[in-house]
Amino acid sequence: MAKSLALLPIIAIATLVGIARAQQQNTSAYPDHAVRIVVPFPAGGTADILPRIVADKLRQRWNQSIVVENRSGAGGNIGASVVAAADPDGYTLLASPPGPIAINQMLYKSLSYDPSALEPVVILATVPNVLVVRSEFPAKTMQGLIAYGKANPGKITYASQGNGSTAHLTAELFQSMTGIKMTHVPYKGSAPAETDLMVGVVDIMFDNLASALPAYNGKKVRILAVGSQQRAALVPDVPTVRELGLPDFQSVTWFAVVAPAKTPPAIRNRINEATNAILQMPDVQKEFLQQGAQPYGGTVADMAQFVAGERKRWGEVIQAAHISIVE
Fold first, then answer.
1. Are both 119 and 262 inside the same structural domain?
2. 113 shares its domain with 262
């Protein structure tokens, strides 16, 4: 009996070593079959186009099938829950803008998955949100808009894609920093909101640059400021909100890849390294720029830190404005 007990630690160590070796072998062989990237929004938008650009390059790099699958609904929660329930082996990933990863848990009373348990992999890109006004809006600058808002409380109407959307949260952040009060007009998606902005039904909107650019280039709207830390390459003459007097303001739409909880770090790092190499390719950077997107990249740890900051920023806005979504 004593000899048997003495052998137990040795057996346990041998078992752990065997498991570690098996995991290492699995990681080195990754990927050895098709990888599925779930996009929790409909096909055709920036959230869908960017992952498809990267997937095509991963397909060439790994010589494996990379399948992009659209599973939209419930603000991205349906697709996110599919990934959260998948095996943590790197073969099912989520490519998404902020909502399902960093915001929805603070908007919805209950979710079928835990966003904070999703494992960070890599940030694909950022797209600045811009302050857009209808072409006939009386204020020609952001400072003029603020002055107009203070002189006319509640008179300025701002559009959004719906309650809890990035446009909604950004407008709430802007109001809290400037002390003005505007009236929210929520829509069901970007297209109807942008249409009503162009024809003058609503006054302003914090839209992402990719969506606002066609109307801006067609002189149907004006862009007064950019929400990112630096000016945007596609509208280099437009100043940032920070330049115009709000140094703590930041609002960007970002697109990132996450994996199910407990996906091994070695696999996540492998995906991260491959994606970073792809984001450095000139043709990929050109395609991203055409979408108004700035390639981002960075390490897994960089993404974790970035998302934590975004979750804190928008969580404070949601709490202060008492925003919630009831389904």
1. yes
2. yes
What is the average pLDDT value for the chain, to the nearest integer? 92
Q: Are 111 and 104 in contact (CB under 8 A)?
A: yes
For residues 163 and 325, is the Cβ–Cβ distance under 8 A? yes
Asked whether residue 193 is domain-assigned, the answer is: yes
By the 8 A CB rule, do 79 and 100 touch? yes
Provide the pLDDT for residue 238: 97
Structural domain for 145, as ranges: 128-226
DSSP state of 239: P
Q: How many helices and strands (H and E) does the chain possess?
A: 12, 10
Same domain for 112 and 148?
Answer: no
CA–CA distances in Å: residue 177 to residues 70, 133, 245: 37, 19, 10
- The answer to whether residues 135 and 215 belong to one domain is yes
Domain count, the chain: 2
Q: What is the DSSP letter of 118?
A: S
> In this structure, are residues 58 and 37 in contact, taking their beta carbons and an 8 Å threshold?
no
Residue 247: inside a domain: no
Give tens-digit pLDDT for 65-117: 999 999 998 889 999 999 999 999 999 999 999 999 999 999 998 999 999 99
| Spacing of C-alpha 183 from chain mean position | 26
Q: At what angle do helices 300-321 and 166-178 cross, to 10 degrees?
A: 70
SS3 string of 73-84?
CHHHHHHHHHHH
Indicate whether 170 and 308 sit together in one domain.
no
**CA–CA separation, 208 vs 128, rounded Å?**
6
Q: What is the pTM of this model?
A: 0.85
Cβ distance 65 to 93 under 8 Å?
Answer: no
Same domain, 39 and 185: no
Which helix (H) or strand (E) covers residue 127, if one does? strand 119-134
CATH code of 94's domain: 3.40.190.150
